[in-house]
């Protein structure tokens, strides 16, 4: 168990409820900043050194809190934004406790984990617990849309750190933490054709949809499940009426890769589809890798072994897994900084109406994170 007294699962759930009931959709900068304000006030009150980074591009700001100490810090990073819009609590996903499950919008992804990080740092400061290295807490506002305004800050703090802990949700099933994640990329493919009457002047047209259909099949052919590469084309759009040859069409492309080399290969293949086409159309392609792969390394395995040993003493197993979805841990691992992800609470239903955590596991999972913060260092 950590030296820091973190309290019971009941106590943690009571305070976590306040975070969940403060709705923070990524699209509402003011709402996110309001929760950041609450976290800042409590961390300042116990002696945390605070840096607020103002929001830009319509997003909320970010919060950096530091504990005293010498040497390279341990960085723990989470996000406060969720995919849920205002009114979710009053509609399809109210906060409620049903047996072992505590439901609410964003409770699993990832307010429970971000609260773990905040609570651990606050209590380390309040109780004046001496940690092996200083601790940096980073809370961001735009992870759910790819961290466009926080990536540089995440990378800045990671470069200063000896290790990075990401309290994204634990795996389900298995309650696993994460030592590897796929890289994530996005493209937008747009086709420009030539309109014509589909009956009287068919030969004068150039169908953007025909070109797009051919390209979608080529993109789908890049899938390599054994190698960890997937692609998905959606949404798809094009055309106006059945009797008009479509002069515009397009789609978005999501792709996931296990390695940086595969990411470069997919980028080259899709970007190579741009330009004049045999059908007399023209294709433009924008986008590329959004998050680099988080590739498993000896350093991440060593972090997992340490976390697993702590969890075993607390009384539960902590396996590891590779996960297809990306997180801010992708950025830090790509810098070569030892990174362990998936240290949040157990549960299920991220981005779904049955989203929940197994609330009785709040204290043991938070204790593992807190002891890592106390004991990691150079």
Automatic annotation (TrEMBL):
Which cofactor is essential here? Answer: Zn(2+)
Q: Where is the Peptidase M20 dimerisation domain?
A: 179-274
> Which GO MF terms are attached to this record?
hydrolase activity; metal ion binding
Q: Give the organism the record lists.
A: Teichococcus coralli
Query: Which Gene3D superfamilies does the record match to this protein?
Result: 3.30.70.360, Zn peptidases (3.40.630.10)
Cross-referenced SUPFAM superfamilies, in alphabetical order? Answer: Bacterial exopeptidase dimerisation domain, Zn-dependent exopeptidases
Q: Which UniProt keywords apply?
A: Hydrolase, Metal-binding, Zinc
- The active site lies at 81, 143
Q: Which InterPro entries match?
A: ArgE/DapE_CS, Bact_exopeptidase_dim_dom, Pept_M20_glutamate_carboxypep, Peptidase_M20, Peptidase_M20_dimer, Peptidase_M20A
Tagged with keyword Metal-binding:
yes
Taxonomically, the superkingdom here is: Bacteria
Q: What is this protein called?
A: M20 family peptidase
């Amino acid at each position: 168990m950590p030296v820091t007294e973190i309290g019971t699962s009941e106590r943690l759930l009571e305070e976590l409820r306040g975070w969940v009931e403060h709705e923070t959709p990524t699209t509402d900068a003011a709402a996110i900043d309001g929760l950041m304000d609450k976290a800042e006030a409590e961390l300042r009150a116990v002696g945390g050194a605070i840096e607020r980074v103002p929001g830009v591009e319509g997003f909320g700001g970010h919060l950096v809190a530091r504990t005293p100490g010498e040497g390279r810090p341990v960085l723990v990073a989470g996000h406060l934004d969720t995919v849920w819009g205002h009114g979710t609590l009053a509609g399809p996903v109210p906060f409620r406790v049903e047996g072992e499950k505590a439901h609410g919008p964003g409770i699993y992804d990832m307010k429970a984990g971000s609260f773990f990080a905040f609570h651990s740092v606050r209590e380390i400061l309040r109780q004046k617990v001496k940690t092996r290295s200083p601790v940096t807490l980073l809370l961001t506002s735009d992870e759910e849309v790819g961290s466009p305004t926080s990536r540089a800050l995440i990378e800045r703090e990671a470069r200063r750190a000896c290790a990075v802990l990401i309290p994204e949700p634990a795996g389900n099933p298995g309650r696993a933490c994460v030592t590897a994640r796929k890289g994530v990329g996005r493209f937008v493919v747009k086709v420009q054709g030539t309109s014509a009457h589909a009956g009287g002047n068919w030969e004068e047209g150039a169908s953007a949809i025909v070109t797009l259909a051919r390209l979608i099949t080529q993109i789908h052919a890049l899938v390599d499940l054994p190698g960890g590469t997937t692609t998905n084309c959606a949404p798809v759009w094009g055309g106006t009426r059945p009797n008009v040859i479509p002069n515009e069409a397009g789609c978005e492309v999501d792709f996931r890769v296990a390695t940086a080399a595969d990411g470069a290969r997919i980028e080259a293949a899709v970007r190579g589809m741009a330009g004049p086409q045999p059908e007399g159309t023209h294709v433009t392609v924008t986008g590329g890798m959004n998050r680099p792969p988080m590739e498993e390394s000896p350093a991440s395995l060593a972090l997992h072994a340490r976390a697993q040993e702590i969890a075993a003493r607390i009384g539960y197993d902590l396996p590891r897994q590779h996960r297809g979805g990306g997180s801010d841990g992708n950025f830090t691992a790509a810098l070569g900084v030892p990174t362990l992800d998936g240290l949040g609470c157990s549960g299920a239903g991220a981005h779904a109406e049955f989203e929940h955590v197994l609330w009785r596991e709040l204290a043991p999972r938070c204790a593992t994170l807190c002891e890592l913060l106390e004991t990691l260092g150079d």
